[in-house]
Specification:
The complex is a heterodimer of chains A (359) and B (523).
Chain A lengths: L2 H9 L4 H9 L3 H17 L3 H14 L4 H13 L3 H17 L18 H13 L5 H12 L3 H14 L4 H13 L3 H14 L4 H14 L2 H14 L5 H10 L3 H14 L4 H13 L17 H7 L5 H7 L3 H10 L3 H7 L5 H11 L4
Chain B lengths: L1 E7 L8 H14 L7 E7 L8 H4 L6 H6 E6 L1 H8 L8 H10 L7 E4 L4 E5 L6 H7 L4 E3 L2 E4 L1 H7 L5 H14 L21 E4 H6 L13 H13 L3 E2 L4 E6 L19 H6 L21 E4 L5 H10 L26 H12 L8 E5 L2 H13 L6 E4 L12 E4 L1 H7 L2 E5 L19 H19 L1 H4 L9 E5 L6 H8 E3 L8 E6 L5 H11 L1
Parallel strand pairs in B: 1-2, 1-4, 2-3, 6-9, 7-10, 12-13, 12-15, 13-14, 15-16
Antiparallel strand pairs in B: 3-11, 4-8, 5-10, 6-8, 16-18, 17-18
Helix pairs in contact in B: 1-8, 12-14, 13-14, 16-18
Classes of the chains: A mainly alpha (359), B alpha/beta (523).
Chain lengths: 359, 523
């Protein structure tokens, strides 16, 4: 028996069949992750060269697979190839840093992006030994939720709740999963329960507001956002800016956006939203230095600068979210509300715009 | 760029604590290169009359370490409310949060480590500041490598951090020291608390360390679990730096009792963590409203304050030596040399907060006058409280507040009782068999009466918020009739006669039964 097989046996890892299936999968994502997991097993068994080969295969399938790049770096380091390893470590960090983070006013879960294969692998390993801990279930649930796999995340939270019954944090996360599945009534009920235990939880207030907004209960949603805004500390400018934007309260949003932009001057979304707030307040937009690339949301900035037409912007918006963002910039509120996911800032703001009395 | 946060107290945490701590402080300072970098040492619950731990070992620290170190002193009075709930005398979560609250807001990173760690950048040209400047936002840890006790004890020169780091680079290869010990996520590595680098804003967002963890251990794992949730991942800086731990297991630490060690519940604080946040302590973590004393080693040191105070009142001696005597027949002579005694009196007060108020009850007006001047010269801002009952004391001296004894009892933080002769003048001979004049008797009677009242009612006269006993300092209470008077009520050590000074906390009140037994024993 080879070292990895012994280790696998000792650690009672996931059934071999599933891993083998993943290795044969035509889906590059599944296959690359299976290769990564196998590589990690080899790495821990001391078969470093074999592990590197597997990580390289995974990277060939998914060039932005930061976990595999980092694991390859560590393997090279263990072999004494420090210079090459150093480059790879940096590359992994760049890949992670390049991932767009989620809305700062929402649950911390949504601020994380990536595959998290390394973490999930370790939590699954922990679950073989830790029978009374909710943490690994919760952590895996968070990864799944952040990846948009709400149904599976919900199962994880349910398992965690069996171990920590009535825990308000877990109930709130279950609410997030339900909300992501469009089960808003159940989600609001879960958030209500969580907020009874801790009425000053800004992220739960935000989650309930989003669900209520999706239900069409805008007044209740606005009340929660307003409470969230009041609870956020002044140094949480990014979160405050987002909440104010959801309320379509541009006067309140502008100073927060200015602060957020001062902190992260290269963040294109802060530039975009500041422009939006200025335009809505009838103020003059400062000249915009458009980046040399054309990645999203540069077309929206080009639209604000008057350098791109509405039709062209809509053409370049190639996802549901982007189309909603573009429609919002074009003041097409109804279109935003009809097509955007309710958690999107533009959806909430558009709902408030539609509810505004028109002159 | 970063604030290092460490904690400890001036106690005997292993016989070689002073050496490993000096090695560690100096090595940490050595890898700092940004003007905003700082080492925040929380000196937690060191007895009030002791200097803080870094002050106690300051002569073994490099100039750079002294320059970057800020000592935040948490007094026993501030610990006492938690003291009933824990067997520990130094609390990690509270200490680290107090430092976090007061860390330099310009710094992006907070680095949690301990006083026995050496952090070695893998590229010798890089500092830790360079490393942390370059890495993206995240939560980073590194594995800890063990350093055999003999190696660091025998071969390290405390004041040569660069040499120590170079030696480590050599030893790590020669003696195969670099072994990574992996652990489950969210810990990632074993002994993770020796290098946890988190964004300062993240630490504020999650409300710092969990302050319900007062039994020791697992604070680091709890932080990893919560930051792991908050950020999604626990990253490594293994490519950038190695961390070496000065092994110190020959003598077990206070919180290490083998299998009988009491600790925070592993399941509760790691495997059942359900949120990064701690709403219950959101508004009060790190004692935000507490005015924590900050002490520097590169300015306004105790020595500087001490000499500044004494230099205001004492002129250099004009003779090679003076003399006194402990011969039996001089037992009743209460003369003493003020200029010789004052340095020992000032030595007793210097470690107290500058805002301390001190009650001085004495017979000699020149003592009060000299002490009050030295007190201000040492930088104390609190008043010298003198009861109206003390006659013959100079009036109108700066910093001296007169008042009714009973009222002053509640206001004072320290007591100083002086048992000298009101008739003694500068230049009078000392311990030559001088008797008591009527004025002396009158003044001493008052001093003794007030002393007995203050010492026997100390616990009843503390300010409402105060829980720890106040210290009593006795001047001229060795080898004369006031020796038993003072030590009957105050738990003082035996001190050399030459110092003239005794000090201690008031003894607990004796029960009636104990008094009977004591009487029978002596009868």
């Amino acid at each position: 028996m080879s070292k990895p097989n012994i280790l696998q046996l000792l650690l009672r890892r996931r059934p071999a069949g599933q891993a083998t299936d993943d290795l044969k999968s035509s889906d590059p994502e599944r296959r690359a992750q299976a290769l990564f997991r196998l590589g990690r097993t080899k790495m821990r068994a001391g078969e470093i060269v074999g592990a590197i080969e597997l990580f390289e295969q995974a990277i060939a399938l998914l060039p932005d697979y930061a976990e595999a790049v980092a694991a390859r770096a560590e393997s090279l380091d263990m072999l004494g190839q420090q210079l090459e390893a150093a480059t790879e470590y940096e590359k992994a960090r760049r890949l992670w840093a390049g991932q767009h983070t989620g809305a700062p006013d929402r649950s911390y879960v949504y601020r994380q992006h990536g595959r998290f294969t390394f973490e999930v692998d370790s939590y699954e390993l922990a679950l073989q030994r830790i029978k009374t801990g909710a943490f690994p279930h919760l952590a895996v649930g968070n990864v799944l939720l952040a990846q948009g796999r709400a149904e599976e995340a919900l199962q994880c939270y349910e398992r965690a709740l069996k171990l920590k019954r009535d825990n308000p944090d877990l109930i709130a996360l279950k609410g997030e999963a339900l909300s992501a599945l469009g089960r808003y009534d159940e989600a609001v009920a879960a958030f209500d329960t969580a907020l009874v235990a801790n009425p000053k939880a800004p992220e739960v207030l935000n989650a309930r507001a989003i669900a209520q907004s999706a239900q069409g209960k805008l007044a209740a949603a606005n009340l929660d956002w307003q409470r969230q805004f009041d609870l956020l500390a002044p140094e949480q400018g990014a979160a405050r800016a987002y909440v104010a934007m959801r309320l379509a309260d541009y006067g309140k949003a502008l100073p927060e956006l200015e602060r957020a932009l001062a902190k992260s001057p290269r963040d294109l979304y802060w530039q975009l939203y500041r422009g939006t707030a200025l335009r809505r307040l009838g103020k003059v937009l400062p000249p915009i230095d458009l980046p040399s690339h054309d990645d999203w949301p540069v077309p929206l900035l080009a639209l604000q600068a008057g350098k791109l037409g509405a039709e062209e912007v809509m053409r370049r918006a190639n996802t549901r979210e982007r189309r909603a963002e573009a429609a919002f910039q074009l003041d097409r509120w109804k279109e935003v509300v009809e097509h955007a996911p309710p958690a999107l800032l533009e959806y909430c703001a558009a709902r408030n715009e539609l509810a505004r009395p028109r002159t | 760029m970063f604030s290092v946060i460490i904690y400890g107290r001036n106690d005997s945490h292993g016989y070689n604590l002073h050496k490993r701590a000096a090695i560690s402080f100096n090595a940490l300072a050595e890898v700092m290169s940004d003007a905003d970098d700082e080492i925040l040492f929380v000196d937690y619950n060191t007895p009030d009359d002791h200097p803080t731990f870094p002050e106690a070992i300051h002569d073994t620290l490099t100039d750079k370490a002294k320059k970057v170190m800020r000592i935040l002193r948490v007094r026993p009075e501030q610990h006492v409310r938690l003291g009933l709930k824990t067997h520990l005398v130094a609390l990690e979560a509270q200490s680290r949060n107090i430092a976090l609250r007061r860390s330099n807001p310009r710094n992006r990173w907070i680095l949690y480590t301990n006083t026995d760690m050496l952090l070695v950048p893998r590229d010798p040209r890089q500092s830790l500041s360079d490393i942390l400047r370059e890495v993206p936002d995240g939560f980073y840890q590194i594995p800890r490598f063990e350093l055999p006790e003999m190696l660091w004890e025998a071969a390290f020169d405390r004041k040569d951090p660069a040499g120590n780091l170079a030696r480590l680079r050599d030893w790590s290869v020669r003696y195969h020291l670099n072994q990574v010990v992996h652990n489950f996520m969210p810990m990632r590595y074993d002994a993770l608390g020796d290098f946890q680098a988190a964004l300062r804003e993240d630490m504020f967002a999650i409300h710092g360390f969990d302050e319900t963890m007062i039994l020791g251990w697992h604070c680091d794992s709890n932080l990893a679990a919560r930051l792991g949730l908050y950020r999604g991942r626990v990253d490594t800086l293994i490519d950038k730096a190695f961390g070496y731990h000065c092994d110190h297991t020959r003598v077990a630490a206070a919180n290490n009792k083998g299998r009988k060690t009491k600790m925070n519940d592993h399941d509760e604080y790691i495997w059942n963590v359900s949120s990064p946040y701690l709403p219950a302590q959101a508004e009060n973590w790190g004692l935000p409203d507490l005015d924590v004393e900050e002490i520097r080693l590169d300015r306004e040191t105790h020595y500087e304050r001490y000499t500044a105070g004494l230099d205001k009142v004492i002129k250099p001696a004009t003779v090679p030596f003076t003399s006194t005597s402990v011969e039996w027949h001089l037992f009743d002579d209460l003369t003493y040399d003020l200029e010789h005694t004052l340095p020992f009196v000032c030595d007793q007060v210097l470690t107290y907060p500058r805002s301390t108020s001190i009650m001085v009850v004495g017979a000699r007006s020149d003592f009060l006058s000299a002490f009050a001047t030295a007190w201000q010269g040492m930088g104390f801002t609190g008043p010298v409280l003198v009861p109206d009952e003390c006659e013959g004391m100079p009036a109108g001296q700066a910093g001296v507040v007169r008042g009714n004894f009973t009222d002053l009892l509640r206001r004072t933080d320290l007591f100083l009782f002086e048992f000298g002769l009101a008739t003694q003048r500068a230049g009078d001979p000392v311990r030559t068999g001088r008797g008591l004049a009527p004025l002396d008797k009158k003044h001493l009677k008052v001093v003794e009466r007030l002393f007995r009242q203050a010492a026997s009612t100390e616990s009843d006269t503390r300010a409402a918020r105060r829980r720890t006993p106040r210290r009593f300092i006795g001047v001229n209470v060795i080898y004369n009739k006031y020796w038993p008077v003072f030590t009957d009520l105050v738990a003082a050590n035996i001190n050399p006669f030459c110092s003239q000074v005794l000090a201690g906390s008031p003894l607990p009140k004796e029960s009636k039964t104990a008094k009977v037994f004591k009487f029978r024993r002596h009868a």
